[in-house]
Design a protein that fits this description.
Keywords: Signal. The chain is an alpha/beta fold and about 325 residues long. The chain has one domain: TIM Barrel (Alpha-Beta Barrel), CATH 3.20.20. The protein is about 35% helix and about 15% strand. The strands form two sheets. The chain has an eight-stranded parallel β-sheet with strand order 9-8-7-6-2-1-11-10. Strands 3-4-5 form a three-stranded antiparallel β-sheet, covered by helices on one side. The radius of gyration is 23 Å and the shape is globular. About 50% of the residues are buried.
Length: about 325
């Protein structure tokens, strides 16, 4: 006589045991988006300014990559002029009217549009830094830059490029009040969003109870100028230059501080690297590739429940002209 059929539930212990012995597949690592190239522009007022900007835009259009690009024009000075990036008030390099940044932005946009492949589009963020040695107050400078970016966006002639604003706010470069005033004035005056490509000089790492950063800044100050000032209008794409991962840990601390303090959540847009700039001028320990920078930030933010992000859409790499 054939044996009685085995009850289905009798096989469950064997199935559970088999599953317990089956190794789990490793989690799939997040993949960094294809990087774009952002530029420090050193304008002189010559026709070559626009030729260079158009060439930079064309190169990015040819890449076929959509995404964020930042053009940094340096420091705002009294009299409505711009000073080259990477300089101090003592420099003898040429200053140009702020309106020259609008011309350069439109030249970049024309180059991108004329050369683009694969239907690429660009989000072009026009930025300055928070160096306070230019003889102009933070609020005045913020409003002035908002006016400049508004004009550039309003006069745009191509649907392939969307113009928005940017700031490189670093604790080493101004008192916190100056930077706070700049961001507050920009976000209340601009008709476009602001991308904060900031540093967190001297700030603690995730897990620290300290809130002390460099040059009299606090974690709260860094959080405010990275997005806390206007959470619906700001996006942070922090500088993740260091190869040791320190800067990513600083930004998870800043994000976690905001959560604990009941401040608005930071809207992380991606990571900024400077490998091209380092190849041009030399760096030690701050030459993360775009993929390394993005991966450090993504991994660190998603290592803690209160700082997790669902997406980091952008990766951009700085270079000199």
């Amino acid at each position: 006589m054939a044996p009685a059929p085995r009850p289905a539930h009798a096989a469950l212990p064997l199935l559970v045991a088999a599953l317990a012995l089956t190794p789990l597949a490793p989690a799939t690592a997040a993949t960094a988006p294809a990087a774009t190239t952002s530029h420090y522009l050193t304008l002189t007022g010559a026709a070559s300014d626009l030729d260079h900007a158009r060439g930079a835009g064309c190169a990015q259009g040819t890449s076929g990559r959509s995404g964020l690009r930042v053009l940094f024009f340096g420091t705002q000075e009294a009299g409505g002029v711009l000073r080259h990036p990477g300089t101090t008030a003592a420099t003898t390099t040429s200053r140009v009217p702020t309106s020259r940044a609008i011309d350069a932005a439109h030249a970049w946009a024309r180059g991108f549009t004329d050369c683009r492949t694969a239907g690429a589009t660009a989000l072009l963020a026009l930025g300055v830094n928070n160096k306070s040695d230019g003889g102009v107050g933070g609020a005045t400078a913020g409003r002035a830059w908002a006016t400049t970016v508004n004009q550039a966006a309003r006069r745009a002639t191509t649907d392939a490029v969307t113009i928005t604003g940017a700031v490189d706010a670093e604790p080493s470069w101004s008192a916190p009040a100056w930077a706070r005033d700049w961001v507050r004035a920009f976000t209340t005056s601009a008709t476009v969003d602001l991308y904060a490509a900031n540093s967190a000089d001297g700030c603690p790492f995730y897990g620290s109870s300290s809130t002390t950063c460099h040059n009299g800044w606090t974690t709260g100050d860094v959080h405010y100028v990275a997005g806390g000032a206007a959470p619906a209008r700001m996006h942070v794409i922090p500088q993740i230059y260091r190869t040791d991962g320190v800067q990513a840990r600083q930004w998870s601390h800043i994000s976690a501080w905001g959560k604990r303090a009941g401040a608005p959540a930071l809207r992380f847009a991606g990571a900024m690297s400077q490998s091209k700039a380092c190849a041009q001028r030399g760096c030690t320990g701050t030459d993360n590739t775009p993929a390394q920078a993005w991966t450090q930030l993504h991994t660190e933010l998603n290592a803690h429940p209160e700082t997790r992000v669902s997406a980091l859409p952008h990766s951009t790499d700085m270079r000199w002209p």
